[in-house]
Each structure stands twice: as C-alpha cells, then as structure tokens.
Amino acid sequence: MRKAGFRTLMLALLMALVVQSTPTNAATATYADRLYSPMFITKISGLYFITDSWNHRIIYSRDVKLPIREWKVLDEYIAAPHSIAGNGTIFIAEDTGRDRLIVYTLTTKGFVRTQAISGIAGRPHRTIYDPATQKFYVLTSDTQNMYTLSVKDGHVVIDSKKNLPYMEASYVRSFSIIDGLMYFVSGPNQILVANYKDGTFSLQQKYDVPEGYRAMNDIKKIGSYYYITVYYNRFIRLKDLSDFSTAEDLYTKMGFKGVPYYMSYFDGKVYVTEIDSYSAIRSFKVYNDEISKVDVMHDYGPPNAAVLNRKRILGT
C-alpha cells in the first residue's frame, strides 16, 4: 500500500475512535453553558482562553477540558472578539464590532480591564504577540491596516499603523509568523509574505490561490506542511504553496461539520476551532507529518435559540 493510502486508512480508523463531548442538553443550554462560534483557543502562561465570538465574550480556565459552564469569564461585554494574545501580564483582544482593542492586565488578584483603545477602524480581526520583537500586531480585516503595539510602563501604546496596499482592499481574516516572516491568508486571491521585524511590512513573496480556496481563515506551518482553513468548509494541508493540486483534504477525514477557523498549537497538539453553523473545538497530534489522536474537545453542534438571541444583542 502506498504511504498516502496508508495515511488515509489510519486517519479513518482514528476518526472511529474520536471521543465526542457534546452535552446532552446542548439544544436547550443557556448561552453561558455552551459555545457559539468559538473563533480562537490558545494557552498563555498556564491559562486557556477561548474567544466565544458570537456569544460576545472571552472565557478562560486552567483545565482545557473543563465543561464550558465552569470556565471563568474574562469579559462578556465585548463585541464578537476573534482572538486574544498576551505576554504573560498584558493581554489584548479585539472588540471587533466596536472597532477597538481591549487591554487586560493580570495582577495578583486576577484580571483587570485596564484600557480600551478606540479608533482601530475596519474590524480589528487578528492579534498576535511576537516574543522575538516583544510587540503585539493587530490586523484590521476591512481596512487592511497593520498596527504595531508595545508595552511601556505597563501601558499599551500604538507604535505604528501601516496600510498594506498589496492586499488590494480585500477582506483578510488572519496572518501568522512563520520562519521569521509574516504570512497573510488569501483575501486578494494570493497568500502574501512580508517582512515585519524591520517595521516595513514590505512584500517578499506571493502565492496565487485557485478559486475555491480564496476566502481563507488561517495558515500555519507544522512540520513539512502548511495547514490552511477556508471559509466555507475546507481544511487542507500541502507542502508547496505554489501547487494547490497537492492539497490533502483534512475536513472530511477529521469529520468537520462547520467552518474550520483559527488554529493554534499548545500542549503538543494542534487545535482548530469550528464556527458558524456548528460550534466545536477539535484537536490532533502531528508527529513526523503523520496525524493522530483526532479528538473533539468541546462539541456544541448547531446554534440554539439562546445563543442566537445572545448574538443579536450586540448586533454583530
């Protein structure tokens, strides 16, 4: 049997062993008891965070498998947050629907909301903290601006705001730092690669993206492969961004039911959030480019009346 065929067979067998964690009362649960479009999950300084976007809140826990109703609430008055990043003390999340950023400081008594940075026009959509530069980076999806922020005396300040014309006024949902460069997912029918450490964000490379993959959500490099999530309903990996004909379908193999959104890596696993028509968080391990231990950690299925009503509260 060829290696690719063996990999497919093994992944199918693994899917048969996936542990489902859908609560029996998911259809009738209150919004506080379940997720609705959890855009992002991450781990920072021993704490797990979920941006429960369409429930307009951010929650956190010391146990990633704890039932959602038992997670602590960082903020439940934040309009459709997409991600959160932190340096261990200072944390920044997008108040996407209000075009601003919210800053939280971790103190000995817990989290304190310390700043609201307004005027980040155009839907701030993705925030990353980069230890190499000790700076935060925030991308606005509608206006194609990249904000660079730093922490001075415990206070977050905006260092620069750069418009990225090579995005061609397209809606760009995310970016990642890969091998010392910044990779922007395709909005303008291309994956774009830029310098960022010198503050110029000058374009270094671009890869054409075929139709069907252009509305990308996220990109990560894991092992030899680039992993890419796409709106609607595609999750793929490939070794060469110049050749999408080699893309391996992970969406079907892993049993996704909604839109695969942002990815993250912690605790030796890759985590992928699932949003829109179906809310869940999936994880898997990668060793020598082989995928194993596919799991569904939080599975809440289609939205119920409680979360649909919660989404309408802030109208975004």
Automatic annotation (TrEMBL):
**Signal sequence span per UniProt?**
1-26
Q: For this UniProt record, give its keywords in alphabetical order, as a comma-separated list.
A: Signal
Q: Supply the name of the protein.
A: DUF5050 domain-containing protein
Per the UniProt record, the source organism is Cohnella ginsengisoli
Source lineage: Bacteria, Bacillati, Bacillota, Bacilli, Bacillales
